[in-house]
Design brief:
This protein has 791 residues and is of the alpha/beta class. It contains 22 helices and 25 strands. It has 5 domains: 155 residues, MutS, DNA mismatch repair protein, Chain A, domain 3 (Orthogonal Bundle), CATH 1.10.1420.10; 104 residues, MutS, DNA mismatch repair protein, Chain A, domain 3 (Orthogonal Bundle); 215 residues, 3-Layer(aba) Sandwich (Rossmann fold); 150 residues, SH3 type barrels (Roll), CATH 2.30.30.30; 80 residues, Ribosomal Protein S8, Chain: A, domain 1 (2-Layer Sandwich). Helices cover 52% and strands 16% of the residues.
């Protein structure tokens, strides 16, 4: 990265954005890397970073943020442990924290949702080690302190230490409570050099035999270890030495075990830091209300873009474009109008995207990955180098032009300023042309009218201006692409109270060409405002029309769906009725054929055939009516339908019974097995039976009469029949019993060889009308009969 590129990064204030990013990181290393983040120039790497940020946002929306707290650098400790060194408790706890964070992050990455992301492999690459993690945390209870449970030996030593300490205190407590207490400076037990002692007055130091371990600063107190506790104190010191030795052994053991997993722990740490940075980018995106921009090979397109360092609630969003239809944008307008902010927004959002950060813009935004973003913005005057503002700017521009190529974005603020206006404008146009010839994208701000004309007359160069409200003397910060800015110097001066004769005198000093040009700009601005108002009104009307059209289409769709639903339901019901009638008729035909075989007179045969033909004709007529078309015009409404009425549904021609009428007038209908809602105007009350209805009822009565005349019996005798004969007779018997609404029948098959009984049971198992069957009980015929329960 060149010095000029780095300088431009500082000028465009990317470090301030990176500070916001660092604030979102959890670990210290993650914060450091966030501050050191720099733009990528490889489109593939930029895409990868942006996708990582998007993945983090998606995961946080679904699962919340993962935890990286407590993750600290462990590379140095692991290196020392690998070389045979023993780590202290703090270093081991840091290793355990990395293992704990690895475990929770791995679990976080294995979320319930099945959607895959580009960072899933990072979570899968973590290697948790719960055994080592719990061994460390179970052995160490704090900095420099091991738990008794760290080892059985340590627990035993500390148990003996507590017993010995209790013994020492008991001996000294007796001394304090005895007659020798008068020799003590205070009735307390204290420690010196790790041994329990009592404070004795200097004049009575010989009254209490023992070892002197210390003397007070005034010399009035001797700290003496009585001879009665010397042995116990010695034992305590030995136990303390054993404790320290055991602690050293435990720490060495834990260190060696951590060293054996050095590579996994080190890799876990690196992945956690990487994930911390990715999720920090995701949190910054959510805080800014940002989005992932697309990558473009041609140029930059920003929709409703906002400068990320401004208050996102009040910042004015602008549409910006550079490189698609034009490669150079010349921005004009008054000072404090937002020109420089616009330049910085273009440059800063490009740098942010190349760092993998989402940008505060709307969908449809895209950036071009630039190898360099070079900016000349702000007051470059240098007293130290004895350079004027113009000289300093020009020195910067010279360096920028030397590095310019087709992968460069160049931003010029007040190009050509600080010198003679005529020469400055000519120089500015020449610099822009040179940068364009190198293939660079260029955005420049200026006050020069000559550059406005240059932008209007040069292909590939576009004017833009920052809107200014002359009435309020305040900028609106809206960028208007395609329209050059007007200086408004006279209007502003007049509003601020400058005498009219001074403004008139100034106006006379402007040549006629400039006056005409400013008049043209004024007319353009008026036309723009008028067109904008008309566009807003047209957009409002178009939105209303689209909403009305959508509602109308939704209503049409709902009517069509309801119509199709009702038609399908009615046809389904009709087909079910026909099928049921056909099945019943088939049973009747079987009975009639049986009667035909047994008939002795010719007239009986003819009667049976006539009955069968009549049934078939009526069934075919009923089935053919299913496809009948609806009448073109519905009959007039005689009266509103009421509860209990039989009505015809106009859409389907289906008849239904009115169950109830809601408060809003909607009727609840019962059509067969269907419950239907309909309005009064969608139905007609049936005033009387039609001829078709009479014929149908007559046909049903005739069929029922014929079925009843067949006579359903509750018992059938199959003894003496072959299995085939028995199955045929049994089939007819069961059919008659079902039609006759019998619930239980008896089949007599005899005992014999059992062949007929097996055939009967086989048929009953596959008969749909049979609920269950069993052999007869005592008194019913036992195994010679079968009792059948019908559905």
């Amino acid at each position: 990265m060149t010095d000029l590129f780095e300088k431009s990064i500082q000028t465009l204030e990317l470090p301030r954005v990176l500070e916001l990013l660092a604030a979102q990181a959890v670990t210290e290393e993650g914060k450091r890397r966030a501050r050191e983040l720099r733009p990528e120039t490889d489109p593939d790497q930029v895409t990868r970073r942006l996708k990582e940020t998007s993945a983090a946002v998606e995961m946080m929306v679904l699962r919340g943020s993962p935890s990286f707290s407590g993750v600290k650098p462990v590379a140095g400790a692991l290196q020392r442990a690998d070389m045979g060194g023993s780590l202290n408790t703090r270093e081991l706890l840091d290793i355990a924290a990395v293992l704990a964070a690895s475990r929770t992050a791995r679990e976080y990455g294995e979320g319930d949702d099945e959607k895959k992301t580009v960072i899933d492999h990072l979570f899968r690459s973590l290697h948790p080690n719960r055994f080592l993690e719990e061994k460390i945390t179970g052995s160490i209870v704090g900095d420099g302190e091991l738990a008794d449970s760290a080892s059985p030996e340590l627990a035993s030593i500390r148990r003996h230490m507590r017993a010995t300490e209790s013994k020492v205190r008991d001996i000294l407590q007796k001394l304090i409570s005895s007659s020798q207490a008068k020799y003590l400076q205070e009735s307390i037990i204290t420690m010196r050099s790790g041994r329990y002692v009592v404070p004795v007055k200097s004049e009575h130091k010989n009254e209490i035999p023992g070892l002197v371990h210390d003397l007070s600063g005034s010399g009035s107190t001797f700290f003496i270890e009585p001879m009665g506790v010397v042995k116990a104190n010695n034992e305590l010191r030995e136990l303390q030495a054993k404790e320290e030795k055991e602690i050293d052994r435990i720490l060495a053991e834990l260190s060696a075990e951590a060293a054996s997993f050095k590579e996994d722990i080190s890799m876990n740490y690196d992945i956690l830091i990487l994930l911390d940075g990715i999720f920090a980018r995701g949190r910054l995106s959510m805080n800014m209300g940002a989005m992932e921009p697309a990558l473009s090979k041609k140029g930059i397109t920003l929709r409703r873009a906002r400068h990320p360092l401004l208050d996102q609630k009040t910042a004015v969003a602008n549409d910006l474009e550079l490189g698609e239809t034009f490669d150079t944008l010349v921005i004009t307008g008054p000072n404090t109008g937002g020109k420089t902010v616009t330049l910085k927004t273009i440059g800063l959002l490009t740098l942010m995207a190349q760092c993998g950060l989402h940008i505060p813009a709307a969908d449809g935004s895209a950036i071009k990955v630039c190898r360099r973003v070079l900016a000349d913005i702000g007051d470059e005057q240098s007293i130290a180098q004895n350079l004027s503002t113009f000289s300093s700017h020009m020195s910067n521009i010279v360096g920028m032009l030397e590095e310019t190529d087709h992968e460069t974005l160049i931003l010029f603020d007040e190009l050509g300023g600080g010198t003679d206006p005529v020469e400055g404008a000519a120089l500015a146009a020449a610099i822009i042309e040179h940068a364009r010839s190198c293939g660079a994208l260029v955005a420049a701000t200026t006050h020069y009218a000559e550059l406005k004309v240059y932008a209007m007359t040069t292909p590939g160069v576009e004017n833009a201006s920052c809107e200014f409200d002359v009435e309020t003397l305040a900028p609106t910060y809206r960028l208007l692409v395609g329209i050059p800015g007007k200086s408004n110097a006279f209007a502003i001066s007049q509003r601020l109270g400058l005498p009219a004769h001074i403004i008139q005198a100034a106006n006379e000093r402007i040549n006629a060409e400039n006056i005409r040009f400013e008049d043209v700009l004024t007319k353009l601005e008026q036309q723009r405002q008028e067109m904008e108002r008309e566009q807003q009104e047209a957009a409002k009307l178009r939105k209303e029309m689209e909403e009305a059209a959508a509602k109308a289409q939704e209503y049409r769709d709902s009517l069509q769906k309801e119509k199709e639903k009702n038609t399908a339901a009615a046809k389904a019901e009709a087909r079910a009725i026909i099928e049921d009638a056909r099945r019943t008729a088939d049973q009747v035909f079987a009975e009639l054929n049986d009667m035909k075989k047994k008939a002795k007179k010719e007239g009986d045969f003819q009667s049976a055939n006539d009955q069968r033909a009549d049934l078939r004709r009526r069934l075919n007529e009923a089935e053919g009516k299913l496809g009948a078309k609806e009448e073109a015009a519905p009959p007039p409404m005689v009266r509103p339908a009421r509860k209990g009425d039989t009505v015809t549904i106009l859409k389907t021609g289906t008849q239904a019974t009115v169950l109830s009428e809601n408060k809003d007038g909607v009727l609840q209908l019962q059509a067969g097995i269907l419950r239907i809602s309909a309005k009064q105007e969608e139905v007609r009350v049936v005033q009387g039976e039609t001829q078709a209805q009479k014929d149908t009822k007559k046909y049903i009565r005739q069929t029922e009469h014929k079925l009843r005349s067949l006579g359903a019996k509750a018992e059938v005798d199959l003894r003496g029949m072959t299995t085939d004969e028995a199955e045929l007779v049994l089939s007819q018997f069961i059919d008659r019993a079902i039609v006759g609404n019998l619930t239980q029948v008896t089949v007599i098959h005899g005992k014999g060889t059992g062949a007929v009984r097996k055939a009967v049971h086989a048929y009953l198992k596959r008969c749909k009308g049979v609920a269950s069957f069993r052999l007869g009980r005592y008194g019913e015929g036992e195994s010679g009969v079968t009792v059948v329960e019908l559905r």
